[in-house]
């Protein structure tokens, strides 16, 4: 059934049996399709999907705050995950972390010298743009000066974290699309198609949040702000 005035953008729409189509037109002129909770039952757990995608955005935000800062925060190293033969531990559990001065952080590994190499590798691969050095059981972490090159390196790291977060959203989306398709034997084709569209719409919306966070951080880094 079609209703509305076809000459008015966003006011002309058709409704298939069992599918609720909202009137507003979204980007690209496509009509946004929504299903009621009753129609979604057994097809798509929308609140759970949103929660997982929101978690991916929050993880990205936390990583940006901790790992992509012009002024290095010593707290970043506290939670740095160290992979060892005995398991994965935050650095704070393996060594004593002290900021000697604004340009140098020390990690005293006297209590866990067997993990020094693992700690050095984790720091070097953390994306924090630092080059750890060792003297006995102490690891020295020189803090890079805030140069244009340093800002550009941080911006690249932000983009890398952004790409990983986008990939996580795609993985979540693919998982839920697969679940939706598995329900096709018990639901109409229209409902299955609409549910898949809803999953993709959520992925795009949360993806736009990631884009905004990345854009703001890159503006901060490359716009000359401290």
Word description of this protein:
Helices cover 47% and strands 18% of the residues. With 226 residues, it is of the alpha+beta class. It has two domains: 38-68 and 148-220, Ribosome-recycling factor (Topoisomerase I, Chain A, domain 4, Orthogonal Bundle); 74-142, Gyrase A, domain 2 (2-Layer Sandwich), CATH 3.30.1360. The strands form four sheets. Strands 7-8-10-9 form a four-stranded antiparallel sheet, with no helix packed on it. Strands 1-2 form a two-stranded antiparallel sheet. Strand 9 (133-135) and strand 10 form a beta hairpin. The longest helix is centred in the last third of the chain and has 34 residues, at 148-181. It is elongated, with a radius of gyration of 24 Å. Mean pLDDT is 82; it is low at 1-29. It holds the Pfam family RRF. GO terms for molecular function: ribosomal large subunit binding. This is Ribosome-recycling factor, mitochondrial.
Report the CATH topology name of the largest domain: Topoisomerase I, Chain A, domain 4
The DSSP helix count reads 6
Number of DSSP-assigned strands = 10
**Over the alpha carbons, how many angstroms does the gyration radius reach?**
24 Å
CATH class term of the largest domain: Mainly Alpha
- What is the mean predicted local confidence, pLDDT? 82
Report, as a whole number of angstroms, the end-to-end distance.
58 Å
* Shape estimate: elongated
Q: Which regions are unreliable across 5 or more consecutive residues at pLDDT < 50?
A: 1-29
- Give the class from helix and strand content and strand pairing: alpha+beta
